[in-house]
Amino acid sequence: MAVVLRGGITGGFLHQRRDTSSVITRRISSVRAAGGGINPTVAVERATWLPGLDPPPYLDGKLAGDYGFDPLGLGEDPESLRWYVQAELVHSRFAMLGVAGILFTDLLRTTGIRNLPVWYEAGAVKFDFASTKTLIVVQFLLMGFAETKRYVDYVSPGSQAKEGSFFFGIEAALEGLEPGYPGGPLLNPLGLAKDIKNAHDWKLKEIKNGRLAMMAMLGFFVQASVTHTGPIDNLVEHLSNPWHKTIIQTLFTSTS
Fold first, then answer.
1. Any known ligand binding at 147?
2. Which residues bind chlorophyll b (predicted)?
């Protein structure tokens, strides 16, 4: 996270300021110019995923959550980087919704409030109001429409907020501020980060929580494969015997 330090500083020293996401150290040294004036030279040390590592030049810290992590060099091409940014954003949002849905329904299941299947078996449940084929067709239509609109907005930013781009004048409720951030009362009902160009803090919080959610989903997949139960059951079992019911013992037992 970029931190701006203000004030007249003339001596050579380290000035540090901490925030919730990173520590940025700014070294300031004063060099006298030929005319007797002060010529401050400022060097900024960026927070990176591996301390002391020089980030690649195309990751200059302007993107939300940019800590210079790209060991495979996937973002060297600017157009590819632009696409990967949108892909990560969408996967982060799906992961956050998935984690919240899994934990909520699993809590209802384990407490006996509702008779629900464990999350990885929910897709096999038959519903009375519609057949599985009907649900698949409806999902393909709705998701296909939404994803097509998102892609069109990615190719032509702001185009989906123009009059006539949606049915029934829905586009009036979409501000189309920036690809990936449609805004408006439909998708931003609380009015957070209306000025999307200066909403770096909100973007950073979202992408951090999204990355955490993607790791949580990976954990859910591994848990389901190894323990054949839900995350709440795994948590309860761990809390019942924290020193002997851990991921290490569970994995070792499952492979032995």
1. no
2. 93, 174
Residue 150: pLDDT band (50, 70, 90) is confident
> pLDDT category, 217, cuts 50, 70, 90?
very high
Residue range 165-209, pLDDT digits in tens: 676 666 666 666 678 887 777 777 787 777 777 788 989 999 999
Q: Is 205 annotated as a binding residue?
A: yes
Query: Cα torsion at 133, 139, 140, 142 (round to 10°)?
Result: 140
Q: Is 200 annotated as a binding residue?
A: no
Q: Which domain holds residue 103?
A: 78-248
Is position 68 within any domain? Answer: no
**Is 187 labelled as part of a ligand binding site?**
no
174 annotated to a ligand binding site: yes
Is 36 part of any domain?
no
Q: Is the pTM of this model over 0.85?
A: no
Task: Name residues whose C-beta falls within 8 Å of residue 63's C-beta, 6 or more positions apart in sequence.
Answer: 85
Is residue 16 annotated as involved in ligand binding? no
71 in a structural domain: no
188 is in an annotated binding site: no
Is 209 a known ligand-binding residue? Answer: yes
Residue 211 is labelled as binding a ligand? yes
CATH code: domain of residue 93: 1.10.3460.10
